[in-house]
Known about the structure:
Elements: H1 2-25, H2 30-85, H3 89-104, H4 109-119, H5 121-130, H6 137-150, H7 159-168, H8 172-184, H9 187-195, H10 207-229, H11 241-252, H12 254-260, H13 272-292
Amino acid sequence: MRAAYKAIILIFIVILYQEIRQSFKENSGFAAGLKNGVKIIFDGLAKGSRNMISVALACAAAGIIVGIVNMGIGGMISDVVEYLSRGNLFLLLFITAMASLLIGMGLPTTATYIVMASLTAPIIVNVGGSYGYVIPIMAAHLFCFYFGILADDTPPVGLAAYAASAIAESKPIPTGIQGFLYDIRTSVIAFMFVINPELILHNINSWPQALLIFGMALVGMSCFECFAQGWFLIRIKWYEIPLLLSAAFVLFHPGAIATYLNIDQAFKYYLFPIGLVLFGITFALQKWRMAKI
């Protein structure tokens, strides 16, 4: 806290110094520079106070939600989600994602995480655990936080969409819709946090292993993005979609393929070349089609 105060005071001094220096260059005198500097400081304080109103209200609302959850509403929500999901992990994650999008609308980043961490993250861990899914608490928090942040450009609230539309001089709702379409394409990453916690380095204690997982995940994410956007080097064809999706799944979660093929989990990383080969085949097909154009 003391460091923050010192930083603020230092900013004030720099502003005053710059304005006084500028006033001497313009031959307007010390008093004029000091007056301009003080005016800039007070204008900044006023704008900062106005901008903090929405954050303060959101944090207050988040505190109310946390208090309600602690009164027992959180358990009720968990029961509802458990009833709707019927033990299906993917349905559980989908319902929680939709809840995170709805709750995260209109909240700033800090308030969003407070609400998500107290309301929806425990649902994933508790409900998943009741059906035998061991879900790390960090993966659950990152999942909810991801979709909570995604709500920043989800119409009709979309605080980030309104800020972006002001910069782009476009309409807020179409801007929010387009931004949400861009964001939702990466939602598979959040699901993979839960399905394959190795992506967040859960129980990973080796640098080479961590770098291998990170590198393969980047290629897998590229494969999924190509599928979602419909483009690789050029527009993808229907027969390239299974190649891209298969490559993405193998590179994201080789353990699932190893389980399906009855391969020991100790050898699951040896399946990464399969995903790379599928990615390479798609690349070769795209290059071949480009050469024919």
